[in-house]
Specification:
Blueprint: E1 3-6, E2 10-13, E3 19-22, E4 27-29, H1 33-37, E5 42-43, E6 48-50, E7 58-60
Antiparallel strand pairs: 1-4, 1-5, 2-3, 6-7
Length: 76
């Protein structure tokens, strides 16, 4: 099963008007109908991660928006 992660804590509706609660960072099945209908609410990369470091709690995962010097990106 492929997973995606909720981008925010919010309520969203599906095409039938049913309301679903999302919790930021919560994993969802990538093939779930809600995910395929509302893909902007989900990410393939985790938006947060737990750590065992004292005082670390939950660490935000920050996506790198630009390429690093010399880095090549797949533009497919």
């Amino acid at each position: 099963m492929n997973l995606v992660y909720a981008n925010a804590s919010c309520s969203i509706t599906n095409q039938h008007g049913e309301i679903f609660q999302l919790v930021r960072g919560e994993p969802w099945d990538a093939e779930d109908p809600l995910v395929t209908q509302r893909p902007t609410f989900f990410s393939k990369n985790p938006v947060q991660a737990r750590t065992s470091v004292r005082g670390g709690g939950i660490v935000e995962v920050v996506e790198q928006a630009t390429r690093a010097p010399g880095e090549k990106r797949n533009m497919a």
